[in-house]
Here is the input.
Amino acid sequence: MNDSTNPSSWSGERICTGTKGLDDVLCGGLTKSRLYLVEGTPGSGKTTLSMRFLLEGHKNGERGLY
Here is the structure.
């Protein structure tokens, strides 16, 4: 596995999504200062993911907009 496909070698500060399993898969969370598009069918959890992300940020003293 080369560095570009190895998540543990990706650089950048990580921010917690509020969803432990997703943070584990993402090796600590989303890369800070990036834009992400979340898409899926109705009922797939997009709103739940976004609310958990915002609440996790609020818990850590960050500002958010819903």
